[in-house]
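Subject: sequence -> structure tokens, single chain

Hey, anyone have a minute? Need the predicted structure for the following. Not urgent.
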Amino acid sequence: MDIVDTRTLCATYAPIMQRGQLFSHLTAARLYGFPLPRRLEFSEQLDVWAECIQAKAEGVIGHRSAPVPSQLVDGLAVVDPRHVLVQIASRLSRDDLVVIGDFLLRRKRPLSTAASLSNVIRASHRVRGIRPLRLAMNDVRPGTDSPMETRLRLALVRGGLREPVIGHTITTPDGAFIGTPDLAYVPERIAIEYEGDVHRTDRGVFVGDIERRELMQEQDWYVIRVVSSHLFPNPAWLVNRVRQQLALRASNAR
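Reply:
Had a minute. Here:
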């Protein structure tokens, strides 16, 4: 089952939902496209929230709590994404919480602002997983582009490196735009790019990557390309590579 199937199941159940009932928890997370861990990506069960009347039907998990705001997603009434993160926090690891927090604050079409998300989490009490979620928020950053970019940043910081910059724009001396690498160590002019399968299989993306990398190098930026095997199961080689380049570039700048 994928997100399309979740929407189909929700659309089938929606006509018999009572007034005030909302899709919630993991069902809502799938409808919003949260980057969930694989073990939580698929389910034929639906989570349905209600303030008063708990949903009872085969294949439906009913939830009750204090009132929560809602949104329409493809015509379906769904709990607000900030509250969805609170609802599922106990099912997620710290890294998963950071990844989803970044997703909500992503650069394109964010689902929340940092202040709004923090306010919702701060106001949530007696909720399973809220303490780990509050701790994870210390590592959440706005303006990211992908879950793997988030995991890359976390790996570098946990490897003992200082936190790289998100969204740094590289230009020519006359101000012409070159690119915005996923992560950057600006003083050392090191750009770090995560490359998923699309960077290999989409010719337009592949060509664009080559051209952008050449232009960055012309401006004395060192580009480090990262793939999933550099991060999993152990990012030690990658962290050491970045550490060595940081030291080398800092030394050459003296």
